[in-house]
Amino acid sequence: MKIVVIGGTGLIGSKVVARLREHGHEAVAASPASGVNTLTGEGLAEVLQGASVVVDVSNSPSFEETAVMQFFTTSTRNLLRSEAAAGVRHHVALSVVGTDRLSGSPYMRAKIAQEQLIKQSSIPYSIVRATQFFEFVMRIADEATVGTTVRLPPVLIQPMASDEVAKAVGRIAVGAPVNGIVEIAGPEPFRFDELIRQGLRARNDPREVIADPRASYFGTELAERSLVPGADARLGEIRFEEWLGQAVPAR
Ligand SMILES: NC(=O)c1ccc[n+]([C@@H]2O[C@H](COP(=O)([O-])OP(=O)(O)OC[C@H]3O[C@@H](n4cnc5c(N)ncnc54)[C@H](OP(=O)(O)O)[C@@H]3O)[C@@H](O)[C@H]2O)c1
User: Which of 67, 110, 123, 165 could join 62 via S-S bond, C-beta 3.0 to 4.6 A?
Assistant: First the structure.
């Protein structure tokens, strides 16, 4: 089966491509690096020829409000239009658990718009909403840093390993479209400030983490359960502590 992975050179995309190939599928990594640009449409018709499934794990190079909205809406429109022309039978997209509860964030508003375009299109689809990747912990810390202090609200968060995100996305891509949302998450919940404290400590990062109920997260306020999935979520097995012990420090 030919499966085109848009964003196939990224963190999740490269792992999805590798897994699909291991399982004998013809997985094609598509991104600007390989001449496929979903924002301009360049290379899309060519790469989608003969494809049964498209997995969209691309990400906006900029999280700035106008840029990120333009990225997810224009790319998704171009992609869905080209998929319809090519006869693609399953569109899989990676989104974020709780997007609909996080509309104060420009990034999440763009993800909500992406999801809506997919739901409105004629292509059968599966939207996979994942929690924050373990790899994203340092980016979160940087975003929440002022001087040498990191402020985060002490709400629940249930992050997961990118390997397990890729595994779930790959499985869903080769299955029947669910025409709905599948939630995936890590095996254990944390208090947000404690998670980031653990991540920084493991990398000998001296920044102090302060639990601040009014601190925002990528521009939005968080409630106790904004970031955690519902009861039907598929949970991974890799624990953060275990991952910290294995992962090569990413900085
Ligand atoms: N970070 C988290 O914790 C988290 C949690 C849940 C869901 N997600 C979602 O996961 C998805 C993937 O994230 P990631 O961290 O794997 O992304 P990433 O490593 O930043 O990779 C982004 C990919 O998008 C490609 N790309 C950028 N502009 C493109 C364009 N115009 N046309 C086609 N491809 C383009 C890049 O290609 P080049 O390499 O050629 O530039 C790259 O392959 C995102 O949609 C995000 O919303 C993230």
Answer: 67
pLDDT at residue 247, rounded to an integer: 72
Q: Is 137 in the pocket of ligand 1 (CB under 6 A)?
A: no
Look at the block and give the residue holding tokens 């359960």: 225
Asked whether 196 and 43 are in contact (CB, 8 A), the reply is no
The mean pLDDT of 150-177, rounded to a whole number, is 98
Ligand 1 contacts CB of residue 132 (under 6 A)? yes
> Which tokens in the block code for residue 134?
């373990």
**Dihedral sign from CA coordinates of 73, 76, 81, 82:** positive
Nearest residue to 55 via CA among 91, 19, 81? 91
Determine the distance separating the centroid of ligand 1 and the alpha carbon of 53, expressed in angstroms: 18
* DSSP secondary structure letters along 223-242: -TTTTS--TTPEE----HHH
If you ran DSSP here, which 8-state letter would residue 50 be given?
Answer: T
Q: Give the integer Cα–Cα distance in Å for 140 and 132.
A: 9
Helix, strand and coil in the chain, % to nearest 5: 40, 20, 40
Q: What is the mean pLDDT of residues 22-30?
A: 97
What would the 3-class secondary structure string for 92-135 be?
A: EEEEECCHHHCCCCHHHHHHHHHHHHHHHCCCCEEEEEECCEHH
